[in-house]
Write a structure and sequence with these properties.
- The longest helix has 12 residues.
- The chain has three helices and twelve strands.
- 17% of the residues are buried.
- The protein is an alpha+beta fold.
- The radius of gyration is 18 Å and the shape is elongated.
- The chain starts with a helix and ends with a strand.
- The strands form four sheets. A four-stranded antiparallel β-sheet has the order 5-12-10-7, with no helix packed on it. Strands 9-8-6-11 form a four-stranded antiparallel β-sheet, with no helix packed on it. Strands 1-2 form a two-stranded antiparallel ribbon.
- A hairpin with a 2-residue loop joins strand 1 and strand 2.
- It folds into two domains: 50 residues, no CATH class; 98 residues, RNA polymerase II/Efflux pump adaptor protein, barrel-sandwich hybrid domain (OB fold (Dihydrolipoamide Acetyltransferase, E2P)), CATH 2.40.50.
C-alpha cells in the first residue's frame, strides 16, 4: 500500500466513530486506536513494526527542538520536576488577564498556567498541584502538539 492510500485511509477513519481499526495487506500492516495515549508507529511489514516514543515521554532534548526559543536556556541541565504537557494540538497563549507564567512563579492547584487555542476555542491548562515553575518550554504564539512539554514544576 503506498503512502497516498495510507493517508486517504487515515482521513476516512478520522470521520468515523471507531475505537480500534487494523488492516493487514500482503507486506503492510496498520493499526489505529482511539481512547488510548497517542503512540505513533511507522508503517512496515508486520514482522518489522517499529514503535515510536510517545510525545508525552519525550526527553527534554526533544522538547528543546519543539521550542527553539528556549534553546539557550536549556543548554544547561534541565531541572528535575513534574511536567505539564499540552492536552491538545493548538496555539500556546498566556493566561487571560494575567502575566505569562515564568520560572520562579509559585502557583496553586487549579490556577491557569496557559491557554491552548484549538479551532477558535481557548482551552485552559491548569496547574495540577501546588508548585513552583522551574522550566518554561513554550512561548506566546508557539504551535504545540498533543503531549508536548509546556512547563516543569517542583
Amino acid at each position: 500500500m503506498d503512502i497516498e492510500n495510507v493517508i486517504k485511509l487515515m482521513k476516512a477513519a478520522q470521520d468515523t466513530d471507531f475505537d480500534h481499526f487494523e488492516i493487514v495487506e500482503d507486506d503492510f500492516a496498520m493499526k489505529l486506536e482511539r481512547n488510548k495515549p497517542a503512540q505513533a508507529v511507522y508503517a512496515a511489514p508486520p514482522q518489522a513494526v517499529i514503535p515510536v516514543q510517545e510525545p508525552a515521554a519525550a526527553a527534554p532534548e526533544q522538547a528543546e527542538l519543539q521550542a527553539p526559543a528556549h534553546r539557550e536556556a536549556t543548554k544547561q541541565s534541565t531541572p528535575e520536576g513534574r511536567d505539564i504537557v499540552s492536552e491538545l494540538v493548538g496555539v500556546f497563549h498566556s493566561p487571560p488577564n494575567k502575566e505569562a507564567v515564568k520560572i520562579g512563579d509559585k502557583l496553586k492547584k487549579g490556577e491557569v498556567v496557559c491557554m491552548v487555542e484549538a479551532m477558535k476555542l481557548m482551552n485552559e491548562i491548569d496547574m495540577p498541584e501546588d508548585g513552583e515553575i522551574v522550566w518554561v518550554a513554550a512561548n506566546e504564539g508557539d504551535t504545540v502538539e498533543y503531549g508536548q512539554l509546556l512547563f516543569r514544576y517542583i
